[in-house]
């Protein structure tokens, strides 16, 4: 029976060893004053026995020497870090890459004081005052820093969940955008930040003023209410779905040690120890204490956190792997660094029974929203909850992207509003100011002409976007494409810059080792049989291995060197073999490592078994196994660009340090040589990704010294990574034996060459931003046709100083058809010193290739191009390192690749292959933009023409602000009588799909914005004025304007208005389909059928006469025929590009 939390905590109250302790042995004199002041304050507050918990913590602080350092010490440390960062590629394996300035949590040293009773608020005031330097800190205040760099939280599983349960954030997950209070205000703001919605709100509100009311109130309220209702219902449903998902997550039940019932996820507290089984979602950030595996290993799936599909190995703390559950609850304490965003970094320490300590790293963590993949169970302690978890801190609310077309329409709406205001004033001026209420007349005219800015415009455009998204997702030529942002499909047709990753985007990320080079000899795919023969001799007939015989007389022979290299490749990695259905598969974070392990398997040396402590190789030729103890692993990361491992071979009793990495860093670590730089360049020119392989034999004494110093450095809570890196450099990373090079090929994606050629011909400027080396990037660019045959490549590399940098750009100012190839250091220098000058040149180049780029540099490039050019930028990538670039683009496209789904989940559009991008841009982008442009102009035409009719009527009626069309006529005109035919334009297309790829140059017309411009807008304005004047003018002349003829005049003018819109839609359609024909016919029949019910607005007897039909046809002919004739003549004299293509292709 496990003790209850109460019992577990009471033993400290009765234990005399947990009294106050003299702190005179502290390393910092400030600690004594700190503790005395704090204890005195607590005594004054008479907290009672609760101070025992504080004293317990004080003992732990003294015992483990977690002392606060002075500002001077911190500045010195930062200075050292800055100096080391000047040469990033030469930094040791493990180093301090993160800054804690983004931490949201600021836990202090003394933080376990229970918050009980009525003293909570006073304690809060006390702590604030104390942290500001009160209570006798005095002159020491200037030398003490309590910033986030040195703060951490201490966790006691027996007391923290009880006394500090309100100190840390709740673990309840909430992804809801709104609540009952914010729902309506937030939505109203989102809707009325657009000018045309705000305009109609003002018009609708004006109808509450009796003097301004014109016609029926419903004429203005209903359309606006419809728009808002549709939007609010959509947002409400989305938020309800989010809350349901949150509720499911929050109510998942977990077993907490010491509690008899299962606890919901939302009620978990920092310090709780929970038990997880295979398939369980990790509910908070945890430290792994125990695993059912004797080795303490456990695998997790992290695809929902970082997008990577490979399983990750996690290791239980060795101090707690075999202890009892009672000891886990009562005899351990954890120290954890302050919460931060990095999912690849964690600093902590676990103390058992107040004496034994073990460092904690990211290998001991289970981050929230990962999933336990291993069979069996594991036990872990909660260290971060709610908003402090890595998942929450890396979750940002997606920004609402606004398409370029919407911005253009918003600008046009402002022009229309100005026109309405000017027209209203002119009508009042012409009427004269004899009327004392002339200002009221202006307002009434503004309301009468409000149809110029149609309230249905936003509804039509939003619905059209949904249609485009459906069409994209159901296009069989680009299957599995997902539209994650439905607000910007039109921008797919306006892209002028494409920023692309290389690996996994242009290439398949399907790695195969194609070549190994040993300096004096090389082996490619054709000669790998020789390597197999050499490896077959790795183990002698007596079973003894001589692959690593460093002092052998045959050490310089090629066979021995090949065997040594293959053994190193088989050992130096982080690959884990798994058996499924009697087949071996490999799990690793990098496909490069899997390719190398598969290569060693193909030549006769297989990875048979691996756990945290050992690795076993199988020699295929003899069936012999070779076992090595794993003493230390130094994982690969993007900053160190290398990975290493220390192993002990029991058979020979030898210690070996193996390391592999990029040539830029390994060149300074291996012994001096004359061939490395040349051969890495040669391999890169072949398009191969190169790794330099090296090794070093260690004596037992050297290893023991390294182990002692490294263990000491790993326990530091301050500058731990820097100290560990220094030890690695001191003992290991120098004078390594250079064993050879490996060349791994990454094949191009399907149809990459033709896709890039199409996009270039479409006028899209392509930038390739990659972290790979210069030669490899150049080779891939040539093979992928990024660099055209015979195109000059201007190379800028190793440029770190601003002096003379601008001279490197002079040639590109003259030859703007050249290609620029630049490395990350040079790009960083230009971004820092000559941003404007660099991009003034680069944005006009057809291709730019940037190598050795960091993720932030990729994002910066995208943002700067957007800022300086104002053009639409599309970014495409497949890995987690591309997410920042994708989110910085106008249009982000993610590829579902072998690196996982992180890029796909963060993107606006998700595709499976790079070649699908051409279909997305050239076909769907074209249709989305041209359809929305035509739809927007038609909706504005529909509003303009009715406003012109109103203006003509007002002028002819002696400038009286009387409504021409009232009540249902206004609502019906914008909905039932015209909406379906106009909206059917979203199904139209001007050319066949095949022609978009046959003539990609047509895309250039879209980027110029010719479909919706001020020119086309004013053409439609002129057209609307002509048709409005014709319709209303002839209607009044045929019937008269007197009051007794008002119903006749309205009947003929409104009927012509509706039929005119139907005919105009028919004239604008390029490619008819059944839906278009049906909408035209049904709308016509609907109007005819509804006429008998409109006796309130029409003279129905007049509409039954032949005279009415004759006058209707005459007006309709005068309104439409000149427009059709002018359009036909203009198209004949100035045919658009797509018309030329259609004519040419039809011949």
TrEMBL record:
Cofactor names: Mg(2+)
Residue numbers binding ATP: 501-503, 593, 636, 660, 689, 770-772, 852, 858, 881-882
Stretches assigned to the P-type ATPase N-terminal domain: 165-214
Cellular localization per UniProt: Endosome membrane; Membrane
Binding positions for Mg(2+) per the UniProt entry: 501, 503, 878, 882
Active site location: 501 (4-aspartylphosphate intermediate)
Disordered: region residues: 1-24, 72-114
Catalytic activity line of the entry: ATP + H2O + phospholipidSide 1 = ADP + phosphate + phospholipidSide 2; a 1,2-diacyl-sn-glycero-3-phosphoethanolamine(out) + ATP + H2O = a 1,2-diacyl-sn-glycero-3-phosphoethanolamine(in) + ADP + phosphate + H(+)
GO cellular component labels: endosome membrane; plasma membrane; trans-Golgi network
Annotated P-type ATPase A domain residues: 258-388
Transmembrane segments annotated in the record for this chain: 220-237, 415-436, 442-461, 935-955, 967-987, 1044-1063, 1075-1094, 1106-1126
Membrane topology: Multi-pass membrane protein
EC number: 7.6.2.1
InterPro entries assigned: ATPase_P-typ_cyto_dom_N (IPR023299), ATPase_P-typ_P_site (IPR018303), ATPase_P-typ_TM_dom_sf (IPR023298), ATPase_P-typ_transduc_dom_A_sf (IPR008250), ATPase_P-type_domA (IPR059000), HAD-like_sf (IPR036412), HAD_sf (IPR023214), P-type_ATPase_IV (IPR006539)
Gene3D superfamilies: Calcium-transporting ATPase, cytoplasmic domain N, Calcium-transporting ATPase, cytoplasmic transduction domain A, HAD superfamily/HAD-like
Record flagged with keyword Metal-binding: yes
Cited PANTHER family: PHOSPHOLIPID-TRANSPORTING ATPASE (PTHR24092:SF5), PROBABLE PHOSPHOLIPID-TRANSPORTING ATPASE (PTHR24092)
Designated name of the protein: Phospholipid-transporting ATPase
Organism: Maudiozyma barnettii
């Amino acid at each position: 029976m496990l003790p209850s939390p109460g019992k577990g905590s009471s033993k400290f109250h009765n234990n005399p060893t947990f009294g106050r302790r003299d702190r005179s042995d502290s390393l910092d004199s400030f600690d004594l004053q700190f503790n005395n002041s704090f204890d005195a304050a607590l005594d004054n507050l008479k907290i009672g026995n609760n101070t025992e918990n504080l004293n317990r913590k004080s003992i732990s602080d003294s015992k483990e020497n977690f002392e606060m350092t002075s500002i001077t010490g911190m500045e010195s440390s930062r200075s050292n870090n800055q100096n080391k960062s000047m040469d990033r590629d030469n930094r040791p394996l493990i180093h301090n890459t993160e800054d804690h300035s983004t931490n949201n949590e600021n836990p202090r040293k003394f933080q376990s004081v229970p918050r009980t009773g009525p003293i909570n608020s006073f304690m809060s005031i006390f702590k604030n005052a104390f942290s500001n330097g009160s209570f006798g800190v005095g002159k020491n205040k200037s030398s003490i820093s309590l910033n986030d760099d040195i703060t951490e939280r201490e966790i006691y599983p027996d007391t923290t969940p009880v006394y500090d349960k309100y100190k840390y954030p709740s673990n309840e997950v909430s992804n809801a955008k709104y609540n009952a209070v914010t729902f309506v205000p937030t939505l109203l703001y989102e809707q009325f930040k657009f000018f045309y919605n705000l305009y109609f709100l003002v018009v609708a509100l004006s109808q509450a003023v009796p003097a301004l009311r014109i016609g029926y109130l419903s004429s203005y309220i209903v359309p606006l209410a419809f728009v808002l209702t549709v939007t609010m219902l959509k947002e409400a449903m989305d938020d309800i779905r989010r809350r349901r998902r949150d509720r499911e997550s929050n109510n998942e039940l977990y077993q907490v040690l010491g509690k008899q019932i299962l606890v919901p996820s939302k009620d978990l507290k920092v310090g709780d120890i929970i038990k997880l089984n295979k398939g369980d979602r990790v509910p908070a950030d945890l430290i792994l204490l125990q695993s059912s595996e004797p080795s303490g290993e456990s695998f997790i799936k992290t695809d929902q956190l970082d997008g990577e599909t490979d399983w990750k190995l996690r290791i239980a703390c060795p101090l707690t792997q075999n202890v009892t559950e009672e000891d886990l609850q009562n005899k351990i304490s954890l120290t954890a660094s302050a919460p931060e965003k990095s999912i690849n970094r964690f600093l902590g320490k676990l103390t058992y029974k107040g004496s034994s300590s073990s460092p904690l790293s990211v290998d001991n963590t289970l981050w929230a929203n990962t999933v336990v993949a291993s069979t069996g169970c594991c036990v872990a302690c909660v260290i971060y909850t709610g908003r402090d978890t890595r998942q929450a801190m890396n979750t940002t609310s997606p920004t609402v992207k606004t398409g370029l077309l919407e911005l253009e329409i918003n600008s046009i709406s402002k022009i229309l509003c100005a026109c309405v205001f000017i027209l209203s004033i002119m009508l009042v001026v012409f009427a004269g100011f004899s009327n004392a209420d002339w200002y009221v007349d202006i307002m009434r005219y503004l309301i009468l002409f409000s149809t110029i800015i149609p309230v249905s415009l936003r509804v039509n455009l939003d619905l059209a976007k949904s249609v485009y998204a459906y069409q994209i997702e159901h296009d069989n030529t680009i299957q599995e494409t997902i539209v994650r942002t439905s607000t910007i499909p039109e921008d797919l047709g306006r892209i002028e810059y494409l920023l692309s990753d290389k690996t996994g985007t242009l290439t398949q990320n399907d790695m195969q080792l194609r070549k190994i080079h040993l300096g004096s000899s090389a082996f490619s795919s054709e000669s790998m049989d020789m390597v197999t023969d050499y490896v077959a001799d790795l183990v002698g007939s007596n079973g003894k291995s001589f692959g690593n015989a460093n002092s052998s007389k045959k050490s310089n022979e090629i066979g021995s060197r090949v065997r040594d290299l293959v053994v190193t490749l088989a050992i130096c990695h982080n690959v884990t073999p798994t058996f499924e259905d009697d087949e071996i598969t490999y799990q690793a974070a990098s496909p490069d490592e899997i390719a190398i392990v598969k290569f060693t398997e193909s030549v006769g040396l297989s990875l048979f078994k691996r756990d945290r402590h050992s690795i076993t190789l199988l020699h295929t030729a003899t069936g012999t196994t070779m076992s090595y103890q794993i003493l230390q692993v130094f994982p690969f990361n993007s900053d160190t660009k290398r990975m290493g491992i220390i192993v002990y071979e029991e058979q020979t009793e030898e210690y070996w340090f193996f390391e592999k990495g990029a040539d830029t860093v390994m060149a300074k670590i291996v012994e001096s040589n004359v061939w490395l730089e040349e051969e890495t360049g040669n391999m890169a020119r072949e398009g191969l990704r190169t790794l330099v392989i090296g090794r070093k034999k260690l004596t037992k004494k050297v290893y023991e010294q390294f182990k002692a110093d490294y263990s000491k450095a790993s326990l530091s809570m301050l500058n731990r990574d820097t100290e560990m890196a220094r030890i690695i450099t001191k003992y290991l990373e120098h004078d390594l034996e250079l064993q050879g090079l490996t060349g791994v090929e990454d094949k191009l994606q399907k149809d990459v060459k033709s896709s890039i050629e199409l996009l270039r011909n479409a006028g899209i400027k392509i930038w390739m931003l990659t972290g790979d080396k210069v030669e490899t990037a150049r080779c891939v660019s040539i093979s992928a046709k990024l660099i055209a045959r015979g195109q000059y490549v201007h190379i800028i590399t190793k440029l770190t100083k601003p002096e003379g940098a601008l001279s490197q750009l002079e040639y590109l100012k003259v030859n703007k058809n050249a290609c620029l190839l630049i490395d990350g250091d040079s790009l960083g220098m230009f971004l820092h010193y000559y941003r404007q000058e660099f991009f003034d040149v680069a944005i006009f180049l057809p291709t730019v290739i940037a190598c050795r780029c960091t993720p932030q540099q990729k994002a910066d490039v995208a943002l700067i191009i957007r800022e300086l050019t104002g053009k639409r930028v599309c970014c495409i990538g497949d890995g987690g390192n591309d997410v920042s670039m994708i989110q910085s683009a106008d249009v982000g496209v993610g590829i579902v690749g072998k690196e996982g789904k992180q890029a796909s989940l963060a993107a606006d559009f998700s595709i499976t292959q790079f070649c699908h991008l051409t279909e997305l841009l050239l076909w769907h982008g074209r249709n989305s933009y041209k359809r929305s442009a035509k739809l927007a102009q038609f909706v504005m035409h529909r509003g303009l023409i009715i406003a012109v009719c109103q203006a003509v009527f007002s002028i002819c009626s002696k400038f009286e602000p009387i409504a021409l069309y009232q009540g249902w006529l206004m609502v019906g005109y914008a909905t039932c009588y015209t909406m379906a035919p106009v909206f059917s334009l979203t199904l139209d297309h001007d050319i066949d799909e095949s022609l978009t790829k046959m003539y990609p140059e047509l895309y250039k017309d879209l980027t110029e914005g010719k479909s919706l411009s001020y020119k086309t807008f004013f053409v439609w304005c002129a057209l609307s004025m002509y048709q409005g004047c014709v319709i209303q003018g002839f209607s009044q002349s045929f019937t008269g304007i007197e009051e007794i003829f008002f119903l006749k005049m309205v009947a003929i003018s409104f009927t012509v208005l509706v039929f005119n819109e139907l005919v105009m839609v028919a004239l604008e359609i390029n490619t008819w389909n059944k839906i278009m024909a049906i909408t035209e016919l049904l709308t016509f029949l609907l109007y005819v059928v509804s006429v008998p019910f409109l006796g309130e607005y029409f003279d129905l007897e007049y509409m039954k006469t032949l005279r009415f039909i004759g006058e209707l046809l005459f007006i309709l002919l005068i309104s439409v025929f000149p427009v059709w004739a002018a359009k036909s003549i203009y198209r004949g004299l100035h045919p658009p590009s797509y018309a030329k293509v259609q004519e040419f292709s039809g011949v």
